[in-house]
Each structure stands twice: as C-alpha cells, then as structure tokens.
Amino acid sequence: MSGRQLVQWTRAEALKLMSRRAARLGLIVSAMLGLVGPLLVLAANGMEMNVNESSLVDWLGLRLEPTEGQLAALRLRNALPLPLFVMWLSASSFAGEYRNHTLREDLLRPVPRTAVLSAKWFALVLWVALSVAACWLTSAVLGTCLFGLEGQWTTLSLGYLATIASEATLAALALCVAVFLRSVPATLVGLFLGWAISVVTGWALGIANAVLSSSMSENLGVDEPTIWLLQTAHRWLPSQALWAWGGCRENIPWLWEHFASMACTLAVCALLSARRFGRTDVP
Amino acid sequence: MSSPPALLVQGLTRTYGVGKRGIQDVSLRIDEGDIYGFLGPNGAGKTTAMRCILGLIRRDAGHVEIFGDADPISMRQHVGAIIETPSFHPWMSGWQNLEQSALYLGLPEHEIQQQVDRVLQRVGLLERSRDPASNYSLGMRQRLGIARALLGQPRLLVLDEPTNGLDPKGMREVRDLVRSLALHDGLTVFVSSHLLSEIQAIGTRVGILVEGELRAEGRVQDLLARGDKAPRVRISALDPQALKRCVTEHVGAEIVEEDSQGSLDVRLVTGSVPELVRAMVDQNISLTRVVPQERSLEDAFLELTS
Fold first, then answer.
1. Domain hosting residue B82, numbered range
2. Is residue B76 less than 8 Å (CB to CB) from chain A?
3. CB B92 to CB A104 under 8 A?
C-alpha cells in the first residue's frame, strides 16, 4: 500500500462522504454555530440576569472580550451536537455500508481491508477538519467584527486543533466499535455505554482521590504515589481525554496525558479493527 | 508455455458449523475465453463459492488463482464481479458511484472520466448516468452493476445470478449484454444462474454444484451426451384419448409427461420416431404435431440433482 494509493482510496471515501446530504448539513450546522457563539456572548452581556447569585455572564463564563465569541462557538460546537454527529457518521460509514452491502462492492476491488478502514478514517478526519474550520472561520469573522482583533488567538487556535484530534479519536473509536457490532444503532449504544463506564470510573477515581488526599493530609498512612496514580489514571480515561480541547479555556491546563491517551486509543482501535475486519465475512 | 487458466480453484472448502452447509472440496478450472455456467439448486453453495473465490468470506481450505495470480488482493485486478444484487450509494448518481469505484480501483485521474463514460455507454446508461442511483429500476441497477464490473477492463467477469429478480425484458437485456461481452469483447465469464436454458445457449462449460459439492463439470455438449440417450418426442393429436391408448400399447414407448391439452412427451426405449409415427397412422390417429425433443441441460441437471 503506497501513499499515492492511500490518497486515492481516501478520495473515494471522501467523495462518498461529502456527497451525503447529512454530511453537508453537518458542515452548515458547524458553520452556523460559529456565528451563534459571538452572538451569544453579545446577547449575554446585554442581559441583566442573575443565576445562583452571580451574573449570567459570569455564570456562563462569557465575558465581552475579543476571541471570547470564538471560544463560545467552540464550546457550543463541542458540547454535544457535532461529536454525536461524528459518532453517527463514523458508525454509518462502516456498519451502514456493511448492512446495505456497499462495503462488499469496495472489497471486490484490489484493495486491502485495512486500507478501506484507513481510507474511511482519513475521510472522516477530513470532514472533522472541515467542520472545525467552518466553525472557526465564521466565529473568527463575526467575533472580529463584534469584538475586534485582540485576544488569545494562539490558545484558541490550539483549542480548535485539539478538537480535530479529539474527534479523530472519536471517529476511530466509533469505527472500531462498528467493525465489531456491524450495526449503526448497536454501535451508538456501545459507544454510550463505553462513555458511561468511563465517566463513572472517572467519578469513582475522583472520589477515591478526594478521600485519599484528605487521609494523606491527616497522616493516615496514604502515600503520594497512590494519589499520583489515581490522578494520572483519571486523566487517561477516554471521557477525560476527549475534552482535551478544554485546555484553551482560562484556568484549565493543557495536559499531555489527554493527548497520549488519545494516541493510545487510536493505536488500539486501529489494531483491533484491522484484526477483526480481516476475519469478518462480508455478505 | 501455455497461458495460465483464467480461474483455477482447488479444494475450496468453507463450513459454517453444525447444521449449516457450506462448500466442500470444490475444484474447477476456467480457461480464457470460456463462458462457464455455475449451476445448482437454491442453497447449493454457488454464492458461497463465488464469495470465497473473491475473498469476501474466509475459506477453511483451498487454493485460488486468477490468471496465475494467487495473491488474494492483487488477483482482483483481473476481475469484475457482481455478487447477488449490486448495491449502490442511493444519494450518489450512477456516474458518481462508478467514479468512486474507479478511485478504489486505482485508475489514473485522466482515465477515470474516459472509462466511466465508456462502460456506461457500453451498458446503455450514459444518458441517465447523472440521475441518483435511487431512481434506477432493478434492470438499470443490474446494468449499472455490470458497468461497474467492467471498470478497469477486467479479463474475467464473475456474475452471480445476474438476471435474478428482473422482468422478462430486463432479463433479456442483461442476457444479451453478457453474451455480447463474452463474444465480442472476449471476456471470460463465470456466471451462476438458475436459468438453465440461458446457460445452455451461451455457456461453453458448466459445473453443477449440489449440497456444496461439485457433482459434474465439463463442456456443455459432453454433459448433454451423458445419461439417458433414449430419443424423446412430443406428440399431439385430434383425439388425445386415442393417442394416449396407442402410445401405451406401442411396445418400447413410455409416456414421460402429459399436459392439459393432451399432448404427450414420449420416451422411446426401443425403436425410432418414424416407427412410432407409422404405428399411429396405422391406427388412424390424426396427428397434429410431432416434435423431436433434444436432451436439455435441464434434463442433465435434474438427473444430477434429484
């Protein structure tokens, strides 16, 4: 499998993906959310409303500052609709095609199965990149018009780039689950279950960390490595790692463990899906 | 040195576990230029065998070569295939579906447009090629499937029940197309079908698969020459009752079948057709029709499968 071949196969998948009405609609929604972000900041700052004894602006964290509109757009985009859409798009890219037999038609060509999976993933990453770029572009244009050119452009751009990394990992995860379950609804349920397990594990680790930390402060024989281990494990959880883009927000640090976790998830997904797909009978 | 066979299959086996039949030890050879009819009753394993050959499903044992190439991926360069009903992305046009397939085939950029147009022209779909695939009739989808199989100028065409589900007009279109591809374009064709008359008309060699095993394989003429050699004749008369009585009394003749109009399909164990006709005339039976029946592929098939 040469690089040129992989580019051509990715083009085949991208052609398929981009010609889907739903995929084009997803790009439009992403671009629209880019407009909604700055407008939301503007609107929130114009309101005199209090939530939990703090102003709406403080409660939402939407200050009237340059690049705040872009950040709001990113937070809106990543809150749920687009990651969900990426999961559905990835699941249907494999499981949907498996069910309606179009996957079989591709496999009748002289192309290795791993290449088909890789091409699907690259096409999905391309879609994610376009959708992030659309959101960034519209929010940047409107945000600059409303709030000026000042602001944390570099940090914010890193947030947008981290979003691409997060959703690329999510796409790989969804593809991997789809290879095993071969049904779009089952894949989505599987992903939500995995997500729930990861979140619950995160809570459990957080509680354990809090309990042990207080024990340590009271000198009850809990050693530092145990606390460190709990904190590190918490950061490596997929549910945490996929929010890595949050590092572009104030007071939230960029954590290398999030990116390392995403890289490991990607590698494991690639390995498992290639292995499983290699043994799958295609009807 | 002789050229390698278009398709060589040796000892192909695929089992599905207890209670589910697959294929056992299937071996066949298709030479370049052959039109090979792959016959068998429903559930005999024809599609399983074709899928195994093309690498869509795993094989438990066996060896497959296409034009001497045994690599499971590169061998598919020489093949265009339709397995069951061809599937398309319904939101894409016929042209886009073929373009996508051409990209997977690895065709150079400048050839894609040219080849897609050429194959669409070949199957008579160029004018409708910009319509969404979801608007195509079953016959058009089948022809689009054949067009896709022809991309990359394959030397071997593998067609699994290409006329399945089509109306008589669609069946005829596809049959004529396959015949033309084999005879005029020089393609080697490996086709499975229920329609034995079609295979008899266009096939050069056949293989008959029964319960996952290849029961017979060879040239169509050789297969027809096998088995029951007694001549058969279809007879009608103005008085069917008298006809039936006379045939029953005629030594060496037996009635194989009788239709609702009283026409008889008669098998002559001994004697000849002229002798039988003379006997009828002697009995004053007014014959309206006497048609000698040639042994068909269907007869051979039924003998092997029953």
1. 7-225
2. yes
3. no
* Separation between Cα atoms, residue B118 and residue A181, nearest integer Å: 39
Out of A5, A12, A102, name the one closest to residue B88 (CB): A102
Same domain, B164 and B273: no
Cα distance between residue B260 and residue B60, in whole Å: 50
Phi then psi for residue B56, to 5 deg, are: -75, -30
Give residues with Cβ within 8 angstroms of B157, minimum separation 6.
B79, B80, B81, B149, B150, B178, B181, B182, B187, B188, B189, B190, B191
pLDDT digits (tens, 9 = 90+) for A88-113: 999 999 999 999 999 999 999 999 99
Residue B281 burial (CB count, 10 A): 11
Give the distance from residue B13's alpha carbon to the nearest chain A alpha carbon, in angstroms.
Answer: 15
Same domain, B63 and B187: yes
B263 within a domain of the structure (yes/no): yes
B250 and B130 belong to one structural domain: no
Calculate how close chain B gets to A119, using CA atoms only, in Å.
Answer: 10
B123 & B256 share domain: no
Q: Which amino acid would we find at residue A2? A: S
CB spacing of B89 vs A112 below 8 angstroms: no
Task: Give me the amino acid identity at A226.
Answer: T
Q: Rg for chain A (alpha carbons), in Å? A: 21
- Same domain? For B124 and B192 the reply is yes
**B190: helix, strand or coil:** strand
B74 in contact with chain A, both atoms CB, cutoff 8 A: yes
Strands annotated E in chain A: 50-51, 54-55
The amino acid occupying position A30 is: S
Number of structural domains found in chain B: 2
Q: What is the dihedral of CA A53, A54, A55, A56, to 10 degrees?
A: -90
- Boundary-marking domain end, from B225, B241, B256: B225
Q: What is the ipTM of this complex?
A: 0.85
CA-based nearest residue in chain B for residue A113: B73
* Same domain as B298, residue B193: no
Residue of A nearest to B98 (CA): A12
pLDDT digits (tens, 9 = 90+) for B243-298: 888 888 876 788 888 888 888 888 888 878 888 888 888 888 888 998 888 777 77
Q: Taking CB atoms and an 8 Å cutoff, what residues of chain B touch A5?
A: 106
